[in-house]
User: Fold these one by one.
Assistant:
Number 1:
Amino acid sequence: MRKKVSIIGAGNVGATAAHWIASKELADVVLVDIAEGIPQGKALDLLQAMPIEKRDLHVLGSNDYDATANSDIVVITAGIPRKPGMSRDDLLNTNYKIMQDVVGKVVAASPDAILIVVSNPLDAMAQAAYKISGFNRERVLGMAGVLDSARFRTFIAEELNVSVENVTAFVLGGHGDTMVPLARYSTVAGIPITELIAPDRLKQLIERTANGGAEIVKHLKTGSAYYAPSSATAEMVEAILKDKKKIMPCAAFLQGEYGIDGLYVGVPCKLGERGLEQIIQIKLTDEENAALQKSAASVKELVNVIGV
Ligand code: APR
């Protein structure tokens, strides 16, 4: 039987995630939104591309969670995006209210699903979904690290004029200005980038990565990034549905790993059919660890505000 992925929020990120998932023929897709007609119209439009793309799957849009029943994965993108000058954290209270509306309905329709949270501020919204759902941590993940590391990989590949396929990059920490791109673990064809890019220039690329979302918001003026965020989401969906055991940075609920307890923070995770199958612990230098703890502290501040 075909797998089923529901996406809550049929806006830019949600609809584009549906597009990537359908184009890779990963699963039937259900788009849900509170806006009447939007999920129905976008789903029907996407469905009509399937004969051209030679993909056999169904795409359905609805305002009703019944359509999402028994999903294997539910991606949550409902929420307002950032506006220029707005930090991800400004979104906190608005998107928390939306999360309170959405997660209970998702869980009632799909009690066995794996949740992937995309709404910002990411780590706090993942923590909210984890608490509201009552699911174990294996089944609630946040999408941020795949996107942040893809941004870092893009800048490294451009800098060195090499294929993006040669570049691996690692980014830890919360999804925000305090994220921790790990240059030591970022490589080009196995060679650490610290041997290929001068420290000052590397610092600039790291800063651009940390401000990657804001750079796009500044261009767009209304709305925020969605092609890369939705592509990153589809990669997580694929790793889970195909039980790939793929290691990628995701926001996960830490229970003592990296010295952090009871908090969603971005760390290397192994994704497979059970969702989060392992948190990979890597040795950090004192400086890297301090940056990670600082990033975790900023996530903690947000979760304290909403009390999750
Ligand atoms: N239930 C269902 N859908 C909702 C709800 C709700 N309670 N509240 C809002 N939505 C829908 C909106 O109607 C809209 O269609 O969520 C959608 C959000 O889409 P966009 O405004 O296009 O925002 P997008 O760019 O997709 O970003 C969504 O993902 O990356 C994050 O920061 C981003 O938090 C934001 C989220």
Number 2:
Amino acid sequence: MAKLYNNSLRFLYSFTKIHFMKKILFPVLSLSTAIFLLGISGCKPKNAGDATGADAAARVYVSPGKYDELYNFVSGGFSGQVSVYGIPSGRLLRVIPVFSVDPEKGWGYSEETKPMLNTSHGEVPWDDQHHLDLSQTNGEIDGRWLFANANNTPRVARIDLKTFRTAEIIEIPNSAGNHSSPFITENTEYVVAGTRFSIPMDNENGDVPIDSYKKNFKGTISFISVAPTNGEMKLAFQLLLPGMDFDLSHSGKGPSSGWFFFSCYNSEQAHSLLEVNASKRDKDFILAVNWKKAEEYIKQGKGKKQVVKYAHNRLDETTHSATSVIETETTVIDVKDFPDIVYMIPCPKSPHGCDVDPTGEYIVGSGKLAALIPVFAFSKIQQAITNKTFDGDYEGIPVIKYEAALYGEVKKPGLGPLHTEFDGKGNAYTTFFISSEIVKWSIKDLKVLDRQPTYYSPGHLCIPGGDSKKPYGKYLIAYNKITKDRYLPTGPELAQAAQLFDISGDKMKLLSDYPSIGEPHYAQAAPAELISKNSLKIFKLEDNKNPYVTMGEKQSKVVRDGNKIHVYMTAIRSHFSPDNIEGVRLGDEVYFHLTNLEQDWDVPHGFAVKGNNNAELLVMPGETQTLKWVPERTGNFPIYCTDFCSALHQEMQGYVRVSAKGSTVPISFSLGKNSDTLDSAIKK
Ligand code: RUQ
Ligand code: CUA
């Protein structure tokens, strides 16, 4: 049956046009009939997805020069980055480089930023970025930091919202496929990171047969503490769990504060053909974790130390440089030995989304293959724990009886529920991948209130503050996986897309859609003022502690140190100092340490060298960044500014002469030497 089901799913997936029929069909049809009927249908009604009118246009129109109402931070999926949009306009404001190199900003190319991408495997210049969480205080968004996960090589990043820059990245040992991450607790005490792939632990010999999965492969959930003052992350402890796949999570709040909930699949412990083998059981689990309890045990010294290796990278905003430290220890708690930390709650059909409502009482599990949505009540979970209303155990972890934890089920909501967010007015909104729609339902009586098609197959959705205690509840943004026929064709691949809905009334109303960068998964949004009030405009030059800073043009120089040449260079509209350099020889490594002397908002200078096997630099006012260049031939090499900084930006250029090995051309450097008229420009 599982196989049949999955084949049907695949069939449906490839048949994206199904959604056109879905709105009418799903409420009344059984699952299999619906699959059959939708499979053979493929006609597009004339007005599909065209429900927006002048009113919708007015709602998303932000007139020139006006600011958007909200910031929307959107995960970049396999682009590895985070993009920032304005809502309601959908205008792209910025792409923040996080886990992937970004030549546009020199991220991962400048000497100062290279350490940010270091891991225990060496430099990993790319990742797969799925989820974001904004820092919270008392369960409300506080506008300080944005956390991002890396799926492939397990990492968590902290983005500083003063600078919109990645300030810190911590790698996670004993993990692989860091998917249920980076969800935070209500006062940002911890960021959690659950492993998607179970693996042999890092301190053991991992060279074991794959079919010894049940014996040798383990799952972990990591708790990364966040320092309340400066946000610094630290791997506090890890929970050791049976081998399976941890998928998504959300922390408790209010009454459920101190708890965390994780969805997991593959309780079958399959290691091959998971689409069939991990869909055999009728129910997988939601794992309820009493993290306060775990924290207590750690404080009592009950955790076991393990020798592991993971990178911890920080970007310092005064030196403008990153450092990477390889840490060597983790503290692990094997939940088998502490039976009051974790409990399993059965959840139908390969659960994915695991969402907690704003009151903290209701936990929504979304089974990817389920035709209903179970809603669990925290108070009932607690009662079941007290009364030991268990249904045996899973590898030593008590399994709470489904009915004992269940508040109720949303019946016939749609097909393929994935994620749920909340509007703070008692309503929940769930995305349905297969039936390609968003369904609004009431938490209190579990009745479906409204459904709207999305184009097509949404994954995540975002309501500003939708996973906090205080959702803003005016808009909803759906992130769609498939956009076939929605935009002008662009070859074999089409963009993923966001769709903005107005949810202020009883019925959701589609306002607009726009393509997005990478494949968006989770997103966060917050009122603009909350973020922009802290925004930094320039780095103060006088605070610049980069060891290679050049505080003014008079101090610019070129220094030879063996085969290393350090160019202490400055940039100001519209020249570099120096702009003529001689005495470089083949075999030299040249380091251009460029300080941007500007102290004005939005005046970066760029820097590039012909033939350099590297990217450019993009240096902010008051900042120093370093570009490495190893010339491989003799000649004269142009250098120039890449960012259009002034009317004479195109004049912002110069030359570096490279001579043969053993040449006697001395080091020399100058600016404006051949011109009397420029004398005034260089006096500073
Ligand atoms: S999770 S839809 Cu649902 Cu990473 Cu992306
Ligand atoms: Cu500096 Cu263009």
Number 3:
Amino acid sequence: MEIRKVGVVGCGLMGSGIAQVSAMAGYTTVVREVSQALLDKGLGAIEKSLAKLVEKGTLSSEQKSQTAARLKPTLRLEEFADCDLVIEAIIENLERKKELFGELDRIVKPDAIFASNTSSLSITEVMTATERAPRFLGLHFFNPVPLMKLVELVKTVVTDPAAVQAALDFARKLGKTPILTSDRAGFIVNRLLVPYLLDAIRMLEEGFGTIEDIDQGMKLGCNHPMGPFTLLDFVGIDTTYYIAEILFNEYREKRFAPPPLLKRMVLAGMYGRKTGKGFYDYSDPKSPQPNRLLT
Ligand code: CAA
């Protein structure tokens, strides 16, 4: 199961990062979006990230142009036919993912490995849309993909150990550190991270401290790079709400239940950095201010 050619479906925040690190590691990488506008946006993000890495000396200008040359942008799923590994990074919607994998299963060569970058949906459930259960697994990357070292490799009860090994080798070749986990909601990281983030919101609601002080507490007291509210805005208020719902549905435990404030913020369109307002107000992106409407 040697991986030479990689396909990435979706060129949004995660897909563009995954395509970038795959091409940087030397793989010919086909990346597909549903429209030219979305493809151009994703490629623009890759270009910006590569330029930043050159500026910081992580990448040479030559490596940057080689990386760009290995990227094969497309609007057509048919381009994935001879890929050895196809990684899906589209919207977190079970039906959409199943529909996509059903289609890919008919197009891509039967011995190729399929991986989903889902952070919360069941890999086993997505897998049922294909006829290649032994070669189906989860490869969960972290945001921002070019900087974050971790990849969670999620195996189901039927994943072939040879596919797991090929995916572990692939992740290591990207310069990432893979950790192995089983298909349970949240995997390892979100199972621990999301209840912590939800607790920070409850603490705010209960008056333990301000947004800034709770953030400072975890930054300066535990050396976290971001406090919980900065991280909530970074991950996305909508995404966190969505993951919490999935965790709550799986485990039926109160600690995974989304707090009322989280739901209200989603309804109000306060999704965090991406909409300019979350627990912080990003009107001046260089100096985010706590969102006073919330306290
Ligand atoms: N590509 C290249 N360079 C990038 C980049 C990218 N995608 N994103 C940021 N950088 C650069 C910045 O431009 C910056 O460069 P300069 O030093 O020249 O300004 C440098 O990296 C450092 O970034 P920042 O100055 O913004 O500040 P930082 O030191 O805080 O680093 C960070 C940023 C790596 C994101 C750090 O804050 C961090 O590790 N935060 C925690 C992130 C985290 O927890 N991610 C996981 C979220 S959970 C998840 O993803 C899973 C899920 O399913 C929800």
